[in-house]
Amino acid sequence: DTGVSQDPRHKITKRGQNVTFRCDPISEHNRLYWYRQTLGQGPEFLTYFQNEAQLEKSRLLSDRFSAERPKGSFSTLEIQRTEQGDSAMYLCASSLGGGSTNEKLFFGSGTQLSVL
Amino acid sequence: AQSVTQLGSHVSVSEGALVLLRCNYSSSVPPYLFWYVQYPNQGLQLLLKYTTGATLVKGINGFEAEFKKSETSFHLTKPSAHMSDAAEYFCALMYSGGGADGLTFGKGTHLIIQP
Questions:
Q1: Interchain proximity A48–B102, CB inside 8 Å
Q2: DSSP tag of B70
Q3: What is the pLDDT of residue B24?
Q4: Is pLDDT at A99 greater than 80 in this prediction?
């Protein structure tokens, strides 16, 4: 499978615990995006990377959220001290980037987080 | 600021009938426009996109959309609905510079196909 891969598919945690999600993008894609999707809403942009550089992070929901892409390949999204309001689907997407007319995001199947 | 509005959170059509899902956008610069489909427990799949050129865009599974700048619309249509079209559909836009915000999505329209 050469698509965007996310792990785990589902995560159940207790309030106050830390969680980390992983995203493996399509191998030749240099841009990687994280989105959050809550029930009945469209995906909401959180942050994105160009290679290993995090170029936009002001839309992360709070300082409890952080993301890394240390070697410009896979990325992790961490939520510290989880709250029930963090329960959502976390989506990862990747693209070739560059702003050309071929710009197209490919999405993974997401990680469904439930905070009890 | 850019935004996307999808009219109707739920649309129900009979199998074989015309599908029309409405999308209006607001953007200060010419946007790229997209329609994505999401089946249960799956990721978003690109149906079609408009960047430049021809304003009538054809996508996968028989869907097409027309970019109308004067109406700031990008409605999605399919002449004849099939049961397999039942899914959540999202309209989205991106700054034509490939902007740092990635995609801005509408809230989605749940398409129901009646047998």
A1: yes
A2: G
A3: 97
A4: no
